[in-house]
Fold:
Amino acid sequence: MDNIDWVSVFEWSTLLKCFVVGGLICVIGQILIDKTKLTPARILVTFVTLGAILGGLGIYQYLVDFAGAGATVPLTGFGYNLAKGAIEEVKNIGFIGAFTGGVKAAAGGIAAAIFFGYLASLISKPKMKKQ
Amino acid sequence: MEKVGKQTIKFNTPPSIVECASIVGPKEAEGPLAKYFDKTLEDEFWGEKTWEKAESKIIKETVNTVIQKAGISASEIDCMFAGDLLNQCISSSFGLRELNIPFFGVFGACSTFVESLSLGAICTESFANKVICATSSHFCSAEKQFRFPLELGNQRPPTSQWTVTGSGSAILSKDGTGPYITHITPGKIIDMGIKDGNNMGAAMAPSFADTLITHFSDTGRTPNYYDAIISGDLGYIGKDIAIDLLKANGYNIKTNYNDCGVLIFDKENQDTHSGGSGCACCGTVFSGYFFKQLKEKKIKKLLLIATGALMNSTSSQQGESIPGIAHAVSIEI
Amino acid sequence: MENPTETKKTYQDYVDKKSPNSPILKNCFNAFWVGGLICTLGQIILNICKDRGFDTQISGTIVSILLIGLSAFLTGLNIFNKIGKIAGAGSLIPITGFANSIVSPAMEYKSEGYVMGVGGKMFTVAGPVLVFGISTSILVGIIYLIFNTQNITLV
Structure:
């Protein structure tokens, strides 16, 4: 790890843009939770679908270029990633790509969630919230 | 036993509540009523592998405790009424399966305790000499069945209520020295169209008001007749609404009315939002606190009205509103 | 005083007035800084990956896996729900919330066994996310294909 360019890793303007955009996307989610009484599952679905549509329209790409992880880490980014993957595969292999591309692009995240989820259930037990 | 007015039953030989017992979980043990309960648990599993098993153990031990406290043997009990919140009332039937006592499983959501008392009281006027009435609920098993996994990082809205972990039980007898069940007013199902499962108090308050007003008009009594009018688990918001609804019908219950869900937790320090709920809320607060107050004659006339929300997760996913129910039992010494 | 239980509508209006609202300003503030921090953590990982010479796609995947792993770890330690209680959408909306919604039912339903309990219930909360996300991506791919073959460039 001796040759990492720490100055570029911690470049403050990139991180600030990422922080603000990521934070604002979460604030939109919070307003939806508090104002509409949507359940968490519905909020997540709304975000992922919205991300996929905006990704398909090419709009979300601008946000990703601007804010980096601030746009890709929220679930809208997950949707964007799925849509982008589908489009890329369609470009490469045609019709079948629409079916394989999305999941392929998101495979790492989905597989990790399943694997870590199973692992956590093996070693850990749910505990009552004290508060 | 005779019917008075529209839906109230008056007992000619009022059954006596011989003994009560209550066991509560760790959070209730930190609440303001902690010292009144027979036993408080240190963790929500109580040595069992699952919450469902823990809840069964809680109701089983509570019933054993009440039999022991009354100084009788289980064979003297003619029948028992019990119920809980889990699907098909498994806590009660699994917890009580080894007792060898005729068993009626009842479901009235959080109104189960008073529903059991009412049915038990009716039995004592016909065939039974001694009847057990019991109920239980468990925060974790209720969350699992009705809401979300415990480890899910969601926020509870300010209107939400906290399911009480615990169990309450009572033994009724034909003869005894009181306190006596003098009247019961079974409630009607009232649905005012509330759909928010995180605002149960608001969904149940109209049924509370309906049963209370009916009880007053059937018996000719007024709110002042009672030293205390206690609802089951309306919580802070439901209590507020209940006072308003009674006022709109010309009754002032502000001075002697309170709610078990308000009493059982310390709202500020325990972060329970709108207060406690669940079958055990009314069950433990009556068995633990009010029964002792009646025994010590600090309260002489008590009207206990347990409220229930008659819904499940399927009905709310299908967009149904939440029907409420409230059963009243008048307990006097 | 008017009777609020006159009709269902009047009662609903009355209940809405009576019920306290969520402290939305405080919630939004917490959601903002926690959500922002999680994304920034992702950006730092992303920058390190890029610095090590991974391409954008692989770097993004590494970020997802690491954040999901962290979220699963915190969920397993019974810490994530405490963060979620304060942060709300701040920890729900980032990929960490998706991981938490898979890990938490897996732990919860362990008591019903490892196959039908953990395996079967793992996606009770997050399943819809995959269903809608993947379905939308397939539609996007097909629509792209249609527009592209007709020489109408949408993107």
